[in-house]
Amino acid sequence: MELSDMMIFPNTSDIWRQLENYGIRIILTHPERNQILQTKFEQIEKWVSEGFYMQVTAMSLLGMFGKKAHKIATRMLDRGLVHFVASDGHDIIGRPPRLDVAFEWVKERYGSDLAELLFIDNPRAAVNGGYVDSYTPKAERSGASGFFGRMFGRE
User: Fold this and answer.
1) pLDDT at residue 139, rounded to an integer
2) Cα separation, 150 vs 72, whole angstroms
3) CA distance 6 to 62
4) Exposed e or buried b for every residue in 95-109, given b needs 16+ CB within 10 A?
5) What phi and psi, each to the nearest 5 degrees, are found at residue 84?
6) Residue 146: is its pLDDT beyond 60?
7) pTM of the entire structure?
8) Structural domains of the chain in order of their starting residue, each with its CATH number
């Protein structure tokens, strides 16, 4: 599902729930790039708490869709609100499907377990009609660098 940048209807959750009653699972594509959701992060949190899935774009994680999209995508990862990372590749030059670079980015910053969950396990589960897993972020102070790292464990 992709939302308009001009308006999000107040009954969006109700419409999605009706679709799910007919066996259609909702995966919201690139909420980090939606101009409305960039200012209403709590809506993303609400939808995830209601059981809807979120998919961020690999290039957003790498900063290629601007600072806002990168900030929101990273915040979503930090809060356990991402279920999938997708290429949103349109061609081989302007928007190539380079998931490998984003996979390494997530792996370096959040660990290989989360990278495999978002790039391999959950996409496979979605295609096969299986269970899409979530993760719970756990903040942990890293030693020498002084930066906050993230360690993730599955729910």
Assistant:
1) 58
2) 16
3) 25
4) beeebeebbebbeeb
5) -145, 150
6) no
7) 0.84
8) 12-154 (3.20.20.140)
Structure tokens at 63: 């900063």
The DSSP 8-state label assigned to residue 31 in this structure reads G
Contact in structure between 69 and 61 (CB atoms under 8 Å):
no
Instruction: Show the tokens assigned to 121.
Output: 């396990």
Beta strands in 14-82 (DSSP E): 27-29, 53-57
Query: Are the beta carbons of 1 and 47 closer than 8 angstroms?
Result: no
DSSP string of 75-141?
A: HHHHTT---EEE----SSSSS---HHHHHHHHHHHH-HHHHHIIIIIHHHHHHHT-PPP-EEEEEEE
Tokens of 59: 């290039």
Q: pLDDT by residue (tens digit) across 82-135?
A: 999 999 877 787 777 789 999 999 999 999 999 999 999 999 999 999 999 999
Q: Which token pair is 40?
A: 């209403």
